[in-house]
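To the wet lab folks,

You asked to see what we're planning to order before we commit. Fair enough. Below is the target structure as tokens, and below that is the sequence we designed to fit it. If anything looks off to you, flag it before the synthesis order goes out.
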């Protein structure tokens, strides 16, 4: 990295991260490119994992507004976005996510537990069901219909991780994707 410019480093990362990598590799690359320590990278890894983000593809599902919710500094968010989208590139805004008719439509009467089991199974993250269910039940959300009835401001108060927030909103409103590497 020292022999090439920062811009060139970001462009190389943009190409590299078209493939999926675990967050530790990504965070270590971000720290290296920006001249930060390994301890800083470890703090970024923890912050992203605390938000249920385990891979670069999980991070690529985030919209602009989600990045603002991540518990990272402005600088680290910008550096990480540069690695994924190029210098001054940004992820799409939520309002620009396209409708996705390939996403399943769920019955309003379906229980939250059944819904979460299906969604988390679809993203190969079954281990997230109980924590997401606990957060929704703590807000007295018991059915898909109750979740669908919420306004944007309500969603912000659910106490979900950034990843849960994005996946569940995409599924409920059938927008965007829930997996980067296929059509869902």
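Sequence we intend to order:
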């Amino acid at each position: 990295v020292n022999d090439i410019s920062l811009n060139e480093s970001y462009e190389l990362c943009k190409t590299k991260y078209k493939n999926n990598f675990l967050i530790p590799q990504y965070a270590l690359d971000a720290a290296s490119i920006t001249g930060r320590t390994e301890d800083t990278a470890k703090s970024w890894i923890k912050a992203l994992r605390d938000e249920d983000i385990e891979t670069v593809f999980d991070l690529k599902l985030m919209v602009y507004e989600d990045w603002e919710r991540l518990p990272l500094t402005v600088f680290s968010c910008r550096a990480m976005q540069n690695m994924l989208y190029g210098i001054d590139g940004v992820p799409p805004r939520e309002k620009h996510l396209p409708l996705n008719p390939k996403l399943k439509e769920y019955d309003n009467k379906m229980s939250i537990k059944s819904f979460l089991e299906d969604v988390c199974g679809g993203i190969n993250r079954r281990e997230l069901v109980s924590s997401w269910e606990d957060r929704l039940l703590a807000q007295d959300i018991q059915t898909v219909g109750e979740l669908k009835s919420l306004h944007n401001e309500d969603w912000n108060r659910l106490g979900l991780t950034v990843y849960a927030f994005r996946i569940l909103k995409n599924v409920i409103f059938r927008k965007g994707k829930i997996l980067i590497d296929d059509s869902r």
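Structural context that might help your review: The longest helix spans residues 38-50. The mean pLDDT is 93.

Thanks,
Computational group
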